[in-house]
UniProtKB/TrEMBL annotation:
Residues 24-290 form the EAL domain. The chain holds residues 347 to 648 of 648 of the full protein. This is EAL domain-containing protein.
Length: 302
């Protein structure tokens, strides 16, 4: 009887839901396997499925490269490139993000050291690394970060940790203490996707934040929406008064770039300036130093 009932239930079960659940489970297994392939040391493995891409962050007034944001890429053996928006949430739920996140930080710092030696500049080239809410909750966070910084021997101030606004708002007391300790070490803390978390701007001073990254959604509406230009202006003014840097994310057009320059936004990144690129291409960009000029020249030619 129970079996018959079970079977009956099975029939009302939406088959597309089952397919989705299976795909999710498959992806989780593949993720676990790919993470097992990660080298513990920095020696590259031939079967490595993860790599970092780097998107330039440029100073909007000088056009110079100030750093890169490291963005994780997963080249799945049969599905090809999978977006981090799809696999990071799975990695978080399953806590696979712990190992994966440490690898990202290690790899980003190791690469930064190479670039800093190859291309000394003042201030030294910086690296932005994304950290999710789950990662901030790790108890040995501070210790591990210190260890990686020591191993890679980069100046502590050239590491910038990006934490989303919603993560910051949800921090508990002890996590806030962790953030303060990170800041005390000299690490630069950035709020990623700023403007999407509905935080009241006045609460910002409670957190030890160095940089605001204005979410792409505001930047993309600059062309059409006067109100959003106003919002960006307000954020820039506020960040200024608190001594924070501002980075505009997702700059896709010349118009947006010029508008952001007018508004006094310090830094920017986006497809208009450069897509995220592999480390070889990033090295070529570094050799150029002047990024914006080249982009603008190309724009006026076409
Ligand atoms: P994010 O940190 O806000 O990164 C910016 C995302 O916007 C990146 O997507 C980047 O490729 C994309 N982007 C950059 N410029 C433009 C533009 O002009 N237009 C548009 N439409 N998009 C642009 P990506 O690489 O797919 O990463 C998505 C998200 O996944 C990231 O958002 C970040 O939250 C997360 N993520 C990526 N790598 C890591 C990582 O190593 N660790 C953790 N915890 N999260 C990561
Ligand atoms: Mg980010
Ligand atoms: Mg962002
Ligand atoms: Mg994002």
């Amino acid at each position: 009887r129970a079996k018959a009932k079970g079977k009956g239930r099975y029939e009302v079960f939406d088959p597309t839901m089952q397919t989705l659940a299976m795909a999710r489970l498959q992806l989780e297994n593949d993720l676990r396997r790919a993470i097992d392939l990660l080298p513990c040391s920095s020696t590259a493995s031939a079967r490595q499925e993860f790599c970092l891409y780097y998107q330039p962050i440029v100073c909007l007034s000088t056009g110079k490269l100030s750093g890169f944001e490291a963005l994780l890429r997963w080249d799945h053996p049969s599905l090809g490139l999978i977006s981090p928006d799809r696999f990071i949430p799975i990695a978080e739920e399953t806590r696979l993000i712990d190992d994966l996140g440490w690898w990202v930080l290690q790899e980003a710092c190791r690469q930064l050291k190479i670039w800093q030696q190859q291309f000394p500049q003042k201030p030294p080239l910086a690296i932005n690394v994304n950290f999710s809410a789950v990662q901030i909750k790790q108890v040995d966070l501070l210790h591990r970060i210190e260890e990686i910084l020591r191993e890679s021997a980069i100046p502590i101030t050239s590491l910038k940790l990006e934490i989303t606004e919603s993560c910051i708002l949800e921090t508990l007391d002890w996590e806030e203490k962790t953030l303060k300790q990170l800041k005390a070490l000299g690490i630069n803390l950035c709020i990623d996707d700023f403007g999407t978390g509905y935080s009241s701007l006045s609460r910002l001073h409670e957190f030890p934040i160095d940089t605001l990254k204005i979410d792409r959604s505001f930047v993309s509406r600059i062309a059409s929406d006067k109100d959003d230009t106003q919002i960006v202006q307000t954020i820039v003014t506020l960040a200024r008064s608190r001594g924070m840097d501002i980075v505009a994310e997702g700059i896709e057009t010349l118009f947006q770039l010029q508008k952001l320059q007018e508004l006094g936004c310090d830094f920017g990144q986006g497809y208009f300036i450069s897509m995220p690129v592999d480390k070889e291409t990033a090295t070529e960009l570094l050799a150029r130093k002047q990024i914006l000029q080249a982009v603008l020249q190309k724009e006026t030619k076409t």
